[in-house]
Amino acid sequence: MNRRTLGRFAAAVLATGLMAGMLPLAHAAEEAPDAMIKRLSDEVLGTIRKDAAIQAGDINKVMSLVDARIMPNVNFPRMTASAVGPGWRQATPEQRQRLQQEFKLLLVRTYSGALSQVSNEEVQMKPLRAQPTDTDVLVRSEIRGRGDPIQLEYRLEKTAEGWKIYNLNVLGVWLVETYRSQFTQEVNAKGIDGLIASLSERNKANAAGKKG
Question: How far apart are CA 153 and CA 174, in angstroms?
């Protein structure tokens, strides 16, 4: 995935939740999942274009946005558990907390530097193939700008607090499944603590590279 593609994907990832924290829970619960993704995408793409710090990859600014706006709209425990795989069941509460912290930091550091690539992208939604009573849906969209369109899909589940994202698919590659293959190898070789240590080292290396 080249830098421009990564940047457009990163913008779309951020667009899933950046502005949702400003909405009343009742509004979020009533909004259709595809309408939510469309609105958030449009609002956040506009926000990113105006924020020089985010575009420059300011990790503290990006992390603040993630914590305040994105995380409330993602079932991150489920996302992390799915990425870790069977080993999650053997992890202690403390280990699970560490895994979530390191995984979140890995994702933020992976995509924050690519936000400078955002320019004139726009999001177009595809028809939602779901029934009104469905509680687990696939929302399909397309990111258009310079270059070929990027197909982006979201897996969402309906909760008491509204729709929550638990997986993403860009260009046919699901985020959770991609990391699961890596994490499973780490757990099989070194256990849960080994995976935590590996993620921590990757995050430190990413931070050092950013500073360099």
Answer: 9
Question: What long-range pairs does 61-68 form, CB within 8 A, spacing at least 24?
Answer: 62/108, 62/112, 62/115, 63/105, 63/108, 65/14, 65/18, 66/14, 66/104, 66/108, 68/21
Contacts 24+ apart (CB under 8 A), 67-70: 68/21, 69/17, 69/18, 69/19, 69/20, 69/21, 70/14, 70/16, 70/17, 70/18
> 64-68, 71-75, 113-117: which has the highest mean pLDDT?
71-75
**What is the pTM assigned to this prediction?**
0.78
Closest CA to 168 of 82, 84, 88: 82
Per-residue pLDDT band at 20 (split at 50, 70, 90):
very low
Mean pLDDT of 104-125: 76
Of the candidates 122, 123, 120, 88, which has an alpha carbon nearest to the alpha carbon of residue 103?
Answer: 88
Average per-residue pLDDT in the chain? 81
Walk me through the domains of the chain, giving residue ranges and CATH numbers: 3-211 (3.10.450.710)
What confidence score (pLDDT) does residue 116 get?
58
What does the block give as tokens for 148?
Answer: 């070929």
The pLDDT > 70 percentage for the chain reads: 78
Tokens at 206, concatenated? 């990413």
Beta strands in the chain (DSSP E): 122-125, 136-144, 150-159, 162-170, 173-174
Closest CA to 33 of 132, 179, 174, 178: 132
64 alpha carbon, distance to own chain's centre: 14
